[in-house]
Amino acid sequence: MASRSPPVPVTGFARCCHTDAVTPQPIDPDTKDWTWVLSRPCPDCGFDAASVHHSQVADHIRNDAGGWVSRLNQPGVRIRPQPTVWSTLEYGCHVRDVHRIFNHRIRLMLTEDEPQFPNWDQDATAIADGYASRDPATVATELFDAASIVADTYANVPADAWTRRGLRSNGSEFTIATISIYHLHDIVHHAYDVRNA
Ligand SMILES: [Zn+2]
């Protein structure tokens, strides 16, 4: 996926000389290919693709969203644990957008034959959308809604459609079944990132 693959490296802050505003610098692009998470356990978050069936992804996504709502309603969510690591708020914005992007991709795979997914520059999105200055309660609601929508999409995939294919811009091939697992790992890993920051 073009989604941010964890951890999120950033280059630090720039403090404007005229105000006290702190603006995150553009972050280093993450070009790592995380498709290996489909074939072996993740040594960081412990996610094991072999232990999850694609028919379970919708429920896992709904449960995960509840965890993010709790996290985003705690104090201090705007604080970066390190200058080079996203805050809980920034991760929450990203996870919201991951759900939206994957919903779009699954719908493409359901309606088109072997679509190639548009590239998503997640780092540019974080800057352009002002992740760091968003309202945490609003993001929590948006994340929960986006998770519900994509969970419904997965829950309604016809039994004979899980093998439909799609292509990332880097050539990686997915089926709806494998991309659902890939999607789930991404958000599980980001919850790990936040817990262990
Ligand atoms: Zn992981």
List the helices and strands and how they pair.
Elements: E1 13-15, E2 22-24, H1 57-72, H2 88-111, H3 122-128, H4 136-155, E3 165-167, E4 173-175, H5 176-195
Helix pairs in contact: 1-4, 1-5, 2-4, 2-5
The structure holds zinc ion.
Please, could you describe this protein's structure?
With 197 residues, the protein is mostly helical. The protein has a single domain (13-195), classed as Up-down Bundle (Four Helix Bundle (Hemerythrin (Met), subunit A)), CATH 1.20.120. Helix content is 44%, strand content 6%. It has 5 helices and 4 strands. Strands 1-2 form a two-stranded antiparallel ribbon. A two-stranded antiparallel ribbon has the order 3-4. A hairpin with a 5-residue loop joins β3 (165-167) and β4. The longest helix has 24 residues, at 88-111. The two termini are 23 Å apart. Bound molecules: zinc ion. Zinc ion is lined by residues 42, 44-45, 47, 185, 189.
